[in-house]
Design brief:
This protein is α+β, with helices and mostly antiparallel strands and about 290 residues long. The chain is about 20% helix and about 35% strand. It is built from six helices and 15 strands. The chain has helices at about 30-40, 55-70, 115, 155-175, 200-210, 220-225; strands at about 5-15, 45-50, 75, 95, 100-105, 130-140, 140-150, 180-190, 220, 225, 245-250, 260-265, 270, 275, 280-290. The longest helix is centred in the middle third of the chain and has 18 residues, at about 155-175. The protein is globular. The two termini are about 15 Å apart.
């Protein structure tokens, strides 16, 4: 008998900036990139997206994945904050081949301000966290997992510290104790390149401590099973730049985990037309599903 196919999960900051800020998209091309992104992402089962702020490329990207997946397509997109709030959305989405049976959203309470950082401040976006509970068929039963994706502040470590605590609290409120949880996204926090390395900055250790308030046995997927160059910030550098995008794995607090992490790779998705499909690389994971 052949072993069942692994569950393929990917976290990717695809940089479709909103409004006038789209002029700062490093890769540009809001028509070509969504179609090419859909071609590479359709091979995955669960996709966590960051920076899908701008509606036309987001719609094109999601529609192209839907064409490929058909009735297997499920998505939870961040809500719009509304014109009264005066901010863009969080730029987040969770896409799944399997049914999303619960979903929740949380907007962070703090962000870097225009007073300090001008037009590059994060307060222009309602950054936060998305949660989707996903039901994966396994044999004659179903495995449920809780998936969270976030994009933390790009400017201030003090803002990210608050956001980390709020993320952990949100995850505690919405994850089932019996489900494995995946916490992923662009955390804008530099992490060590390999197991045993000291963190390049103390902030990484603080982030891990805050997330372990949610689950004390939470682990950085890359440090468990990373393969190849680790960096996610520079697509043309040998080491990939710095590691700021993550998939954290939190086993259930009740019972055994139905997922076993097989591998984690950084995917640069280089492209001859636009250099690479984003100014970030993606973090791609494969999990073996335990047989019920």
């Amino acid at each position: 008998t052949t072993s069942p196919a692994p569950l393929r999960v990917i976290s990717y900051n695809v940089q479709f900036l909103p409004g006038i800020a789209k002029l700062f998209n490093a890769r540009g091309n809001d028509d070509y990139r969504p179609r090419r992104l859909a071609e590479v992402l359709r091979d995955y089962d669960i996709i966590g997206l960051n920076e899908v702020f701008e509606l036309p490329p987001r719609r094109l990207l999601l529609d192209e994945i839907k064409k490929a997946w058909g009735e297997s397509f499920h998505v939870y997109e961040c809500p719009e904050p509304g014109p009264a709030v005066g901010r863009f959305n969080a730029g987040l989405a969770i896409v799944s081949r399997y049914p999303i049976i619960q979903s929740h959203h949380f907007a962070y309470s703090v962000a870097s301000t225009r007073k300090e950082f001008g037009v590059f401040a994060d307060e222009f976006a309602a950054k936060g966290v998305l949660h989707a509970r996903i039901a994966i068929p396994s044999g004659s039963s179903t495995i449920e997992i809780d998936v969270f994706t976030t994009h933390m502040d790009s400017k201030l470590a003090s803002a990210r510290e608050v956001q980390g605590r709020e993320f952990a609290q949100f995850a505690r409120e919405h994850a089932s104790p019996g489900n494995v949880a995946l916490l992923m996204g662009d955390f804008n926090t530099r992490g060590p390149a390999k197991p045993g390395d000291p963190p390049p900055r103390p902030e990484y250790s603080g982030l891990i401590d805050r997330l372990r308030v949610f689950r004390p046995h939470l682990e950085d997927g890359w440090l468990l099973a990373g393969q190849g160059p680790p960096g996610t910030s520079e697509q043309l550098e040998e080491d990939g730049g710095t590691r700021i995008d993550y998939v954290f794995v939190a086993p259930p607090t009740e019972g055994n985990s139905p997922l076993k992490l097989r591998s984690v790779k950084v995917e640069r998705f280089l492209d001859p037309k636009v250099t690479s499909l984003s100014d970030h690389s993606a973090v791609a994971c494969e999990f073996d599903l335990a047989q019920p």
